[in-house]
UniProtKB/TrEMBL annotation:
GO terms for biological process: translation. It comes from Advenella mimigardefordensis (strain DSM 17166 / LMG 22922 / DPN7). Binds directly to 16S ribosomal RNA. This is Small ribosomal subunit protein bS20. Residues 7-22 have a biased composition (Basic residues).
C-alpha cells in the first residue's frame, strides 16, 4: 500500500491509465479481428474498407505508445498482404 500522498496519487493515476490503455488495446484487437473476418469471407472491397479504418486505429495506438511502432507496422503489413492474396 502506498504510504505517501505522492505514491497514493501515482497509484490512482496508474489505475486510470491502465483502464484507458486497456480500452484502446481492445479497440485495436477488435479492428484487426474485423479485417480478418472480411478476409476470411473473401470480400476484397469490404476488407479494404475495414482495413482503412483499422490502419487509423493501429497508428493511433502506436502513437500513444501502447504498442510499439514496429508491431503496428507488422500488423498493417500482414493484413495488407492477406488482402492482396484474396485476388490472387
Amino acid at each position: 500500500m502506498a504510504n505517501t500522498a505522492q505514491a497514493r496519487k501515482r497509484a490512482r493515476q496508474s489505475v486510470a491509465r491502465n483502464k484507458h490503455n486497456s480500452s484502446l488495446r481492445s479497440l485495436l484487437r477488435t479492428s484487426v479481428k474485423r479485417v480478418r473476418q472480411a478476409i476470411a469471407a473473401g470480400d476484397q472491397a469490404a476488407a479494404n474498407e475495414v482495413f482503412a479504418k483499422a490502419t487509423s486505429v493501429i497508428d493511433r495506438v502506436a502513437d500513444k505508445k501502447i504498442i510499439h511502432k514496429n508491431k503496428a507496422a507488422r500488423h498493417k503489413s500482414r493484413l495488407s498482404a492477406a488482402i492482396r492474396a484474396i485476388s490472387a
